[in-house]
Specification:
single chain; 347 residues; Beta-clip-like; four-stranded mixed β-sheet; 12 strands; 16% strand; binds S-adenosylmethionine
Length: 347
């Protein structure tokens, strides 16, 4: 049931709990090195009102890695007899890793040896391991010191190729700035309203959030709570129906050129106002803006937004998703000058 994999030596090892059938396959799996020294710029320090936290040692542009790290422990999110399994797994850890694990914050229990409670306070979700596609939890020495914000400047992603975690910037981060992530990870949506966010954080992490979104005056929070559900629906629709939106806008003679770009700009302002940096939302928006700007032949704006889409894509997935090529030559996009086409054909 336990494996310490692989023997990375200087890069650290991860104690894993997974079924025997998975463990047997693992010696044949090769993981890439993580190059930790190159990229890690997180420094753990005390943060007022939050216990420990992490700050960036240097500036990091949007989409770029802030740090990579091997987990101390990786285990299925649900399993039978977790207490025994975790107890035995922590016994097999190397002494420095065991000390790091038991030194982590515990928001649910006063017992410093309560490993399950340490895991529930400090784990992030990862999407399974090779050969076992169920949700797993991972606990880290440094990443588990990252505090929450409802408008986080960074995001956790699991990198299957290196079997390690990665933190990427969701917006430009300055040197010395606290690096924050969202604890909602698939449980609450990024545009969740104030009472939902606060209830979750209090129940699961035992703190009252005072981040820049939650800490606004109550009348601003009330307005925000009315706006957030609308933003959520708009941005999901834009992601799903941007083609239909663009086609209707082009075909309908009653529309003017600015109609779709203006609507998308209003959604952009709403996301900025609400400080929602969630990359999927921005990828949806950027894709629609590139489509609209290409349709009216605005090369500069199309380039800018394709480059922006590439940054958000990198934050979410680690690669540009083909957006860098579009940023270079938006004229090759299928929508290029589509606005003029029906009129030329019809004349
Ligand atoms: C995963 S740990 C983060 C690191 C922790 N601050 C430490 O000292 O190790 C989660 C705990 O950090 C604290 N925390 C996280 N985000 C916070 C925030 N925005 N404000 C206050 N406390 C926060 C809460 O006590 C929470 O239970």
């Amino acid at each position: 049931m336990f494996s310490r994999i692989p023997a990375w030596g200087v890069e650290g090892v991860t104690t894993c709990i997974f079924p025997k059938v998975v463990a047997l396959r693992w010696p044949s799996i090769v993981f890439e090195p993580i190059g930790k020294a190159e990229t890690s710029c997180l420094r753990v320090k005390n943060i007022r009102g939050k216990g420990k936290g992490c700050v960036a040692a240097r500036a990091v542009p949007r989409g770029e890695p802030v740090a990579r790290e091997r987990a101390l422990l990786v285990m299925p999110r649900t399993c039978l007899s977790p207490q025994q399994l975790v107890g035995a797994a922590t016994d097999t850890m190397m002494p420095n890793q065991r000390a790091a694990f038991f030194g982590l914050h515990n928001c649910n229990s006063a017992d410093p040896k309560d490993a399950l409670s340490i895991i529930s306070t400090n784990s992030v979700l990862i999407p399974g391991v090779p050969g076992h596609n169920v949700l797993y939890s991972a606990v880290f020495e440094t990443f588990s010191r990252l505090n929450h914000s409802c408008c986080p400047n960074a995001m956790f992603r699991w990198d299957r190729a290196t079997f390690s975690g990665e933190i990427r910037a969701l917006r430009p981060i300055s040197a010395g700035e606290e690096v924050t992530i969202s604890y909602f990870q698939g449980i609450l949506e990024p545009a969740a309203v104030t009472h939902e966010r606060q209830k979750f954080l209090l129940e699961c992490y035992n703190f009252k959030c005072a981040c820049p979104v939650c800490g606004r005056p109550s009348e601003v929070c009330n307005r925000s709570d009315e706006e957030r559900p609308i933003i959520s629906v708009s941005i999901t629709d834009i992601g799903k129906y941007y083609r239909e939106m663009a086609e209707d806008w082009i075909i309908d003679e009653g529309n003017d050129r600015a109609r779709l770009p203006d609507y998308l700009h209003a959604v952009e302002e709403a996301l900025d106002r609400e400080m929602i940096f969630y990359p999927t939302y921005w990828i949806n928006l950027a894709r629609a803006i590139v489509t609209a700007r290409c349709a009216i032949g605005e090369v500069k704006a199309a380039r800018k937004w394709a480059a922006r889409a590439a940054q958000h894509m990198r934050a979410a997935t680690g690669s540009d998703g083909g957006w860098d090529a579009i940023a270079k030559e938006p004229e090759k996009c299928e929508w290029w000058r589509a606005w003029d086409r029906p009129r030329v054909q019809g004349s």
